[in-house]
Amino acid sequence: MDRIKTKYLGLELSSPVILSSSGLTSTLPRIQAAEKAGVGAVVLKSIFEEQIMNEVAHVEAYSDYPEAADYVQAYVQENSLNQYLDLIRSAKQQCSIPIIASINCHQDGQWVNYARVIEEAGADALELNIFLLPTDKEVPASELEKNYLNIITRVKETVSIPLAVKLGAGFTNPLAVVREIYYRNVKGVVLFNRFYPTDIDIEKMTVCAGDIFSHASELSNVLRWTAMVNGSLPLIDVAVSTGVHDGADVVKAMLAGASAVEVASVVYEKGLDVVAQMNEFVADWMRRHEFQGTAEVIGKLNAKNIPNPALYERTQFMKYFSKHE
């Protein structure tokens, strides 16, 4: 299906559908199955800065030899990282689709060195998943954004492979943040990160996990910001994540300005066959509308290319729907 080929982060993808960072991309057999199903690329399951550091702390806490702390820390970090590097190398040897590594982090620290060895292992690109939950009322939003940008700057100084930054939807001004990211020569942004969902069990009166899978209804907000980012900053690639559940959603994302989409929830729920269904839908839609390539589709309905950009800026429900009874 040459018609649905796309370019993302400077990489040639046979399909705009990327299998996102999850357990679905945690082993070589799963990556090979995803390639066979027709994905354009995979984002490997993230290596977690926090997880490794917690593992180090746990081992150190039970050590009878405090003087061995440095050795223990180095051993745990190296062991966790080496497993990840082995996955990158084996995936690159056995698969032909782009392999995008992923680091999940929340602060600027020694983990930045992970990025360098990930590049050396052969990853085609790196997705940086920065998670900072603003729980301190004394810390202004500007400080949180500064922390994000410091992390990005350090990683960019460390690697030369394409970098994408996966963002949460909670920024005061996402466009300003994406602009600053673009100024740091980042190739792409992923909109949006879906954080660990929280719920409350009213019978047990305990805090529990919410629904871990995304829903199609979550796509709307992502389309809004994709259209505005692509309209104002067309030189930075956008991948849509969260809420993509069928081929029509892929087309919507591309029209809004996405070069690719990242999926996981729908694959968990329906299996890898859904990827081929998405690809076929996109190809058929493009044929029916006489598009020869995805470059003609991407951004066609972004905030700059439609007659009334205010359609993406409407946020007040009652103002537009108060007449409906």
Automatic annotation (TrEMBL):
The record, for SUPFAM superfamilies, names: FMN-linked oxidoreductases
The reply to whether Flavoprotein figures as a keyword in the UniProt entry is yes
Q: Which UniProt keywords apply?
A: Flavoprotein, FMN, Oxidoreductase, Pyrimidine biosynthesis
User: Which GO molecular function entries does the Swiss-Prot or TrEMBL record give?
Assistant: dihydroorotate dehydrogenase activity
Its Gene Ontology biological processes?
'de novo' pyrimidine nucleobase biosynthetic process; UMP biosynthetic process
InterPro entries cross-referenced by the UniProt entry: Aldolase_TIM, DHO_dehydrogenase, Dihydroorotate_DH_1_2, Dihydroorotate_DH_cat
Query: Pfam families attached here?
Result: DHO_dh
Q: In which pathway does it act?
A: Pyrimidine metabolism; UMP biosynthesis via de novo pathway
What is the top-level taxon of the source organism? Bacteria
> What is one term from the GO cellular component aspect held by the record?
cytoplasm
Protein's name according to its UniProt entry? Dihydroorotate dehydrogenase-like protein
